Amino acid sequence: MKLLRYPIFICCLLCTCFSLCAQDIILKNPSLEGERGAGKVPPQWLGRNTPDVQPGALNITQQPTDGESYIGLHSGPTYLESVSQEVNLQAGKSYQLSADLAYAPNYAYKACYGLLNVYGANSPRDTLERLWSSVPMYHTSWRRYTFNVIPKKQYKYIVFMAGVDLPCDQSPYGSAVLMDNLSASLRETPQLSADVHKTCENEKQGSIKLKIAGVSVPCTVSWSPINSNATELKNLAAGTYTATVQHPNGVTAVLNVTVEDWKLRSNVTVTPSACYGENNNSIRLETTGGTGPYRYYLNHSQHASYSNVFEKLTPGDYNVLVMDEEGCRESISTIAVREPDKLAFDQVWRRDISCTTVMDGRITVIPRGGTLPYSYNLNNGAWQSDSVFSKLNEGEYFYKVKDANGCQIDSIATIIRNIRECAVFVPTAFSPNNDGQNDYFRAKVHDDVTDYRLDVYSRWGQRVFATTDPYGYWDGKVNGQLQSPGTYVWVLTYTDSKQQGRKQTGTVLLIQ
């Protein structure tokens, strides 16, 4: 029995190796060894036109990187050289292979570049599907290229050709490629993809389900930055996770997977009531991100609203919780809802008619609150932007104020007529001592005057006061300094209610 153990063990080992490597495609003579010479093809390989086993033919002296020989290919638009080998390329599978490549600028003819195309084919001369192309090569020393091919269909041959994708003005054979030391097999390569589920912002609800295709044997999985060997990850925060999958044949595939987060963002618009006290304020939320429909909870309510508008709100501060179908949340606090201030009369100035024969009554309305601008109306007439109603006769007047939102207030004022002579009188003295008696110098205007101007001069002719307001006055100061007691000269000009120009002069005594 002991004698049988070793053959059994060796048999098992060989079977295990065969099962692990069965899906790799073994290349025959990957070192491209063969009899050197022009127009020759290495054993186990098939040629198109006249590839050459190098070095030594057609001015090529580059030494091989592996073994004693390698293949040389040069092509032009009307003459293509390639080598191929019979393999069994499976549709949709990914294979990895490597080769040492170099450019030969003088390959019997002057070349312009080196370029290698790899094809899937059903005969040695086919180019049914281009599986890979190198970049144009200009390096004459060997460089190692490793690449993957994924045939869309099943093919019997793999073809290596000197490609002619670029023009060349040096010769009819512009592409010249040297190839050596192919990998021993077309190694089955894992094809990775992933199903990703997002997470809510600042939460750990994401997940990744890794999919490994194109392999016939189990592969090992490792993740970073987290430590896991599973193909499915859960409870992930937003971020990028890297899966490294290793095939038993040594090929490694890497996939970076990004778990994004749903970011709920709401733009809040508050529309106040048109008028104070209406309690018709509203909040509108325009939400983006996440997964709709959205649910809204006002002021910690336990009852969700699927409407993004809250109406008929009283003034105050509100908060809203927004939640989407994934359970993601956005908390919005301190939404200030304010109505306009109450529209009211701040001041109303009424000026009675100056004298017996004129009509210069005036009502000036100064409102506050509401929403600017204001409009004004007298006795249900036309609305105006001026807050002053002038040229009024004696009587009772009904006036209204309206703000920009149409809110209104109203009141009544009575204008009376002063029965007296229509004239302008100027006092002869005043005492600016703040005792409430004759503190100001001003004319007593008992007429409907226009073009009014009052100037006051010192005894040296310096003007110390001027006004164009019939109700303007002098407080006895110049630049904030009380002037010396004494006599001052005044000059008064105006147009009276009879449209006659008037000029009056005189003196006034400043008493302290």
UniProtKB/TrEMBL annotation:
Signal peptide (UniProt feature, chain positions): 1-22
- What UniProt keywords apply to this chain's record, in alphabetical order? Signal
Coiled coil feature spans: none
**Record-given protein name:** Gliding motility-associated C-terminal domain-containing protein
Q: Does the keyword ATP-binding apply?
A: no
One Pfam family matching this protein: CHU_C
Keyword DNA-binding (UniProt): no
Q: Which InterPro entries did the record assign?
A: SprB_repeat, T9SS_type_B
